[in-house]
Amino acid sequence: MKFREYLGKMKGSTRGSPPRVSNEEILWSWIGAFLGISGVALVSHLFFDGRDMSLMLGSFGASAVLAYGAVRSPLAQPRNLVGGHVVSALVGVLCWKFLNQNLWLAESVAVATAIAAMHATRTLHPPGGATALLAVIGSPAVHKLGFWYVLMPATIGPLVLLAVAVLVNNIPSSRRYPEIWF
Question: Membrane-spanning residues where (predicted)?
Fold first, then answer.
């Protein structure tokens, strides 16, 4: 490829901005995200407060965008939503355990390997990259969890988000979730 062609690819396409969604779609996205994140927070509060644990990860906010705002996206489907976090959490914990002496290396290997592992397992979910990174850069409490991090929060949290997504996203006639389970 010539250098000009390479640079030309950076201009983007001529498709323009994405179409505007309806007010109903905006409202249902808001309701789903509110209930999904509230569900994770409530489960965390009821079962994990006082145990130096939290069920909430920042990456769940990004998962909420997909599960409630882009319900038809392949990246938002149950296999990806749950599997992406689980695979990425496992990768992140392993990177922390083996590479924590070189934080920059553990961080970069965790995210890059999580992407590769999600591709290989057909569970690509962009927030999974953050879940892997959080396993490395997290607090001492996160590091103390070790492989428990994979189960709690990285499996239980997405399962709560999924349950809410299945219930809420099927209320309006304009939505259907999931498109495919596996």
Answer: 27-47, 53-71, 80-99, 147-168
pTM of the model as a whole: 0.92
- Quickly list H helices, the chain: 3-8, 23-48, 59-69, 78-99, 103-121, 127-137, 140-145, 148-151, 156-168
* C-beta separation of 113 from 96 below 8 A: no
**Residue 159 identity:** L
Over residues 24-68, the pLDDT tens digits come to 999 999 999 999 999 999 999 998 887 666 789 999 999 999 999
Distance from C-alpha of 74 to C-alpha of 108, rounded to nearest angstrom: 25
- The total number of residues written for the chain in this structure: 182
Determine contact, residues 135/89, Cβ cutoff 8 Å: yes
Q: How far is the CA of 68 from the CAs of 7, 91, 93, 123, 162, in angstroms?
A: 35, 26, 28, 18, 10
Distance CA 124, CA 73 (A): 11
Residue type, 92: G
Torsion, Cα 161 171 27 44, to 10 degrees, reads -20
